Amino acid sequence: MTRRPRLPACLLSGLLLSLGAGCKRKDTVKVEIFDDAPPPALTEALGALAPPWPAPERVVLADGLLVHWLREEGTPAVHLRLVFPTGDLKPALQGAPALIAARSVALELEALAARLSLRVEFTPRAGRYEVSVHGVDAELPAILAGLGDIFSAPALEGPLVRARKQVAHDLRPPDAEARALGALTTRLLGDVAAGELITANAVQEASETALRDAWEALTDPRSALLIVHAGDTLAGHDGGLSDLAGRWKPRTKLLAARGPAEEALVRLRQGPRPAAPPALHLKRPPIAPLERVDPPPPSTTRSSRSLLVLGRSLPLASVRDRSLARLVQRHLQAELDIRLSITGDVGLFTIHVPLGAAGRGKPATDPLEEVEAADEAADPSEADPLNRRLRRELTVIRDYLRERPLAQDLIGAAQLWLGARMVAASVDGEDWTALWSEALDLSVADGEIVAALARDAETMLAATPDEAAAFITRWLDLEKSEPGWAWVAVGSEADLKGIIAAESKGIQFDPPPE
């Protein structure tokens, strides 16, 4: 396996967001300003890598809609982000019905662009869908009125039909990586997380009743979250929000009978939890069986490539755990193809290994393999050229994971990660709601959201090589780590026969040099 060249440890230029002035609350609006966990003292580095926003205003409207209001005094733009959690939906409404329902909201908002200066974005995320609107601050009342029109419309058939067509048009057949990740997610996290993997057949077969039920449950204001980044205070739009609450009413009994949660993280994380991962290892008993998944149709060379993906679940109960996991992943990604996704307090860590030159009857391209192939192996799988190449690549990966990171490597990885986050926010028009959405995933209570990105930067920049090495040894070492592994090979049975035979006894490495 060819390791990637190291990325330079350079500090990206800091992009400071304007610090909004304090908000004067009016007596006509009963709002709450929470700052249970005040931001840590920002050093010069932290100030460049985390937004110095003031504590937001928060209110639960009469219909149960939770509003987080981020004020930046004098900003000419306005950003709204509708967050629709999926965890509380019934299993029959998960997947394609929920996606189509959320996409219909985005399409209806895009229709407002003809008379308003709007830009609409639709973002699927783990456990939720987000629809964001970017416009001119002066048009915020009109945008709120437009939301009221959408959520009070009596007919849903037209929007849902258009959304189904749009989703079917945008959906692409799953490639090798998508198939591998789908199998790994099911194995490690259970059907709850795997329900978000959507196929074209599921989109076409979703019934009209399921679509309507999904729309009514997903857009129920008692479960949704509205995040606003504007120049005015929340009280300044009391009338528009009251009108929205009066028109956007709960109209479903599909949700559990309870009052609306006043905590955003409760709304995002209620519902079934991911299943406990299997207590399996890759090298020592109990060994995780290597699962083979059929490759996609050979429509393109890229989509039909053979691939091995090793994955494990990570328990990430604290903000520090999540920050350290993301820092370690960013450091290792400098030379290996490693991914990390976090849903709530669970992470999915994967290592992707392309199986190049797969196939029967292909000559060995490595002179050393030609010599080895001339020798008779006791185990027929040992004579398989692809298996020998894979064994060497896995040895390279194991040895690199065991290399103790240098302090400058971690600082460089943290600066690149955090700097890229702030650059993305600037490119997106200084949209605080996008950063607020990311802060939700880094928090364990609503009072921590305002300080989450600053604490994330602080934790990353303060991480030591010993902490990173201990994390890798405990969770990521292919031979010695804690259980919780699974692995999948994507390719035809004929191509991967040698690999499957060899790896049935667990992951294989080259013997150590004598």
Helix content: 25-40%
What fraction of the residues are assigned to beta strands by DSSP? 5-15%
Mean pLDDT: 82
Written as H for each helix and E for each strand, in order along the chain, the element string is: EHEEEHEEHHHHHHEHHEEHEEHHHHHHEH
Radius of gyration based on Cα positions? 25 Å
Largest sheet: 7 strands, mixed
Instruction: Please count the beta strands (DSSP E, at least 2 residues each).
Output: 12
Number of helices: 18
Head-to-tail CA distance between termini: 22 Å
Q: Note the overall shape.
A: globular
> Unreliable segments (pLDDT under 50, ≥5 consecutive)?
4-29, 35-45, 357-365
User: Numbering strands along the chain, what is their spatial order in the largest sheet?
Assistant: 1-2-3-7-4-6-5
Estimated structural class = alpha+beta
Q: How would you summarize the topology of this molecule?
A:
Layout lengths: L31 E2 L10 H6 L7 E4 L5 E6 L5 E9 L10 H15 L8 E7 L2 E9 L3 H13 L4 H14 L5 H14 L1 H4 L5 H6 L2 H11 L6 E6 L7 H10 L16 H6 L20 E4 L13 E9 L3 H14 L5 E6 L2 E9 L12 H8 L10 H17 L5 H21 L4 H10 L7 H14 L2 H11 L9 E6 L6 H7 L11
Parallel strand pairs: 3-7, 8-12
Antiparallel strand pairs: 1-2, 2-3, 4-6, 4-7, 5-6, 9-11, 9-12, 10-11
Explain how this protein is built.
The chain has 514 residues and is α+β, with helices and mostly antiparallel strands. Helix content is 39%, strand content 15%. The protein has a seven-stranded mixed β-sheet with strand order 1-2-3-7-4-6-5, with helices on both faces. It has a five-stranded mixed β-sheet with strand order 8-12-9-11-10, with helices on both faces. The longest helix is centred in the last third of the chain and has 21 residues. It is globular, with a radius of gyration of 25 Å.
